[in-house]
Amino acid sequence: MLRIEGLKSGYGRIQALHGVDIEVGQGEIVALVGANGAGKTTLLMTLCGNPRASEGRVLLAGEDITALPTHQIIRRGLAHSPEGRHIFPRMSVYENLQMGAAVSDPRHFDQDLERVLALFPRLKERLDQRGGTLSGGEQQMLAIGRALMSRPKLLLLDEPSLGLAPLVVRHIFEIIAAISRDQGVTIFLVEQNAFHALKLAHRGYVLVNGKVALSGSGTDLLANPEIRAHYLDGGAS
Amino acid sequence: MEYFLQQLINGLTLGAIYGLIALGYTMVYSILGMINFAHGTIYMLGAFISLIAFLAATTIGGASVVVALLVALFSTMGFTALWGWTVERIAYRPLRAAPRLAPLISAIGVSIVLQNFTAQAQGARVKPLPPVIQGGFTLMEGDGFTVNLSWMQIIVMVMTLALMAGFTWMITKTSLGRAQRATEQDMKMAALLGIDVDRVISTTFVIGAALAGVAGLMVTLYYGVIDFYIGFLAGIKAFTAAVLGGIGSLPGAMLGGLLIGLIEAFWSGYFSIEYKDVATFGILIMVLVFRPTGLLGRPDVEKI
Ligand SMILES: Nc1ncnc2c1ncn2[C@@H]1O[C@H](COP(=O)(O)OP(=O)(O)OP(=O)(O)O)[C@@H](O)[C@H]1O
Ligand SMILES: [Mg+2]
């Protein structure tokens, strides 16, 4: 589904990714973990064309999307729930979801809306509320729901658990599992919360200073003593 | 009382025209966070195109007044829209990553070019258009003073209302308007949802320009005289209207336009006509000093 080859990218003269190779298979959940500043967010954003890759290639379902403008990449079946959620603050929840469906066939809208609201019943009660006034957890639900409105082939999630209470975190991860299981969406997930992410994922990658340092199945990585020491101390509860 | 009513009518007419121009300022501002200093000259271009189109349609084409007006309306909207698109393309887009001052300078540059081109092509002297739509109603009579509401004033107000209603509908209800608001609130995220942000920005310039073009048409018909310099003053007044209403707020632009029109009419009616522009600019300064967010603006404006 997604194939990243020798990807380099950064901001101006600062290089954040130094040749990354990652593969995400059809229907898989793949987690990317790593310390602050490792380049996880940069990687997901580079997949979307902003910032642009300086070297390497990105293939989505076999097609080279490396040089396409962002909106064209999205139209090819990628959806991103970015770091910081980026809910449109002065639009209602409903309008935010409409924006999520901006590239899809309007005839699907009602059906997709129903599907997303079934996943996040909390949003259903708040359709007319302004995005900016939602709680953090609700905003995260909306960000994921909005991304799902376009019926993506591949869903990118950047730190869906950031800043959420443990109970809500568990709920969000359950929903991610359900999205993968019930809707067959391929998921590429970035997380600080390595424990939850690796438990959920089929496979995982560890990013260190803009390079993949380790990869393997979720269970293997969870059992790896090095990972336990660096990313799971205190988090393995 | 009669005198007051007459100034009210005049002020509302004038304010409608300012409001139409102010919309363009506020739209571009809310999406790019910049004042489009080329906007005033677009209004001037609209005035000239409508004059030329109207005269061509009647004298060469032998069209009736109504047909000629429609020809003038559509050619004005078409040409000003095209010019708005061009301004964005040559003055703003190549400089989007540049320091904020750069596009302002290039925008002033293109407007100077257009202004001088117009002065060259059309002559620097005032152009008259014989009154096209005459007559109206006498609303009230007394003390040797009559209150008139002319057809032209009715047309200006009705047309402005219709345009503003259509525009508001477009922004609040259509997918284009939604894409516009999304781009304005979070450009990066809009792109991540598949919105072609460049196209949305282009459309914003095009719509704002076409509205200013209509304002130019109306002023040509209403006053009957135009020159290549009218864009400057009207531009600053409409800008004042946008700031007074709260820059970035669409209802604010309409409200600000009406208020500026009313203030100007009452000032010239009761104080002195020579100082009417001073009144407007006094308001601009007072708003900037005491309430920079304007009447309906959001308090979280951080861009200038
Ligand atoms: N807009 C930017 N301009 C310049 N440098 C940036 C920018 N965004 C990120 N960086 C730098 O790129 C590097 C990678 O950042 P990135 O945001 O990708 O890390 P991350 O792995 O997502 O970290 P975190 O877990 O804290 O979100 C960091 O050194 C960061 O300082
Ligand atoms: Mg990050």
From TrEMBL, chain A:
<dbReference type="InterPro" id="IPR027417">
    <property type="entry name" value="P-loop_NTPase"/>
</dbReference>
<keyword id="KW-0547">Nucleotide-binding</keyword>
<dbReference type="InterPro" id="IPR052156">
    <property type="entry name" value="BCAA_Transport_ATP-bd_LivF"/>
</dbReference>
<dbReference type="InterPro" id="IPR030660">
    <property type="entry name" value="ABC_branched_ATPase_LivF/BraG"/>
</dbReference>
<dbReference type="InterPro" id="IPR017871">
    <property type="entry name" value="ABC_transporter-like_CS"/>
</dbReference>
<comment type="similarity">
    <text>Belongs to the ABC transporter superfamily.</text>
</comment>
<dbReference type="InterPro" id="IPR003439">
    <property type="entry name" value="ABC_transporter-like_ATP-bd"/>
</dbReference>
<dbReference type="GO" id="GO:0015807">
    <property type="term" value="P:L-amino acid transport"/>
</dbReference>
<keyword id="KW-0029">Amino-acid transport</keyword>
<dbReference type="GO" id="GO:0015658">
    <property type="term" value="F:branched-chain amino acid transmembrane transporter activity"/>
</dbReference>
<protein>
    <submittedName>
        <fullName>ABC transporter ATP-binding protein</fullName>
    </submittedName>
</protein>
<dbReference type="GO" id="GO:0016887">
    <property type="term" value="F:ATP hydrolysis activity"/>
</dbReference>
<keyword id="KW-0067">ATP-binding</keyword>
<dbReference type="GO" id="GO:0005524">
    <property type="term" value="F:ATP binding"/>
</dbReference>
<dbReference type="Pfam" id="PF00005">
    <property type="entry name" value="ABC_tran"/>
</dbReference>
<dbReference type="InterPro" id="IPR003593">
    <property type="entry name" value="AAA+_ATPase"/>
</dbReference>
<feature type="domain" description="ABC transporter">
    <location>
        <begin position="2"/>
        <end position="234"/>
    </location>
</feature>
<keyword id="KW-0813">Transport</keyword>
Automatic annotation (TrEMBL), chain B:
<dbReference type="GO" id="GO:0015808">
    <property type="term" value="P:L-alanine transport"/>
</dbReference>
<comment type="similarity">
    <text>Belongs to the binding-protein-dependent transport system permease family. LivHM subfamily.</text>
</comment>
<keyword id="KW-1003">Cell membrane</keyword>
<dbReference type="GO" id="GO:0015192">
    <property type="term" value="F:L-phenylalanine transmembrane transporter activity"/>
</dbReference>
<dbReference type="GO" id="GO:0042941">
    <property type="term" value="P:D-alanine transmembrane transport"/>
</dbReference>
<dbReference type="GO" id="GO:0015190">
    <property type="term" value="F:L-leucine transmembrane transporter activity"/>
</dbReference>
<feature type="transmembrane region" description="Helical">
    <location>
        <begin position="97"/>
        <end position="117"/>
    </location>
</feature>
<dbReference type="InterPro" id="IPR001851">
    <property type="entry name" value="ABC_transp_permease"/>
</dbReference>
<keyword id="KW-0472">Membrane</keyword>
<keyword id="KW-0997">Cell inner membrane</keyword>
<feature type="transmembrane region" description="Helical">
    <location>
        <begin position="12"/>
        <end position="35"/>
    </location>
</feature>
<dbReference type="GO" id="GO:1903806">
    <property type="term" value="P:L-isoleucine import across plasma membrane"/>
</dbReference>
<feature type="transmembrane region" description="Helical">
    <location>
        <begin position="150"/>
        <end position="171"/>
    </location>
</feature>
<keyword id="KW-1133">Transmembrane helix</keyword>
<feature type="transmembrane region" description="Helical">
    <location>
        <begin position="42"/>
        <end position="60"/>
    </location>
</feature>
<dbReference type="GO" id="GO:0005886">
    <property type="term" value="C:plasma membrane"/>
</dbReference>
<keyword id="KW-0029">Amino-acid transport</keyword>
<feature type="transmembrane region" description="Helical">
    <location>
        <begin position="200"/>
        <end position="222"/>
    </location>
</feature>
<protein>
    <submittedName>
        <fullName>Branched-chain amino acid ABC transporter permease LivH</fullName>
    </submittedName>
</protein>
<dbReference type="GO" id="GO:0015188">
    <property type="term" value="F:L-isoleucine transmembrane transporter activity"/>
</dbReference>
<keyword id="KW-0812">Transmembrane</keyword>
<dbReference type="GO" id="GO:0005304">
    <property type="term" value="F:L-valine transmembrane transporter activity"/>
</dbReference>
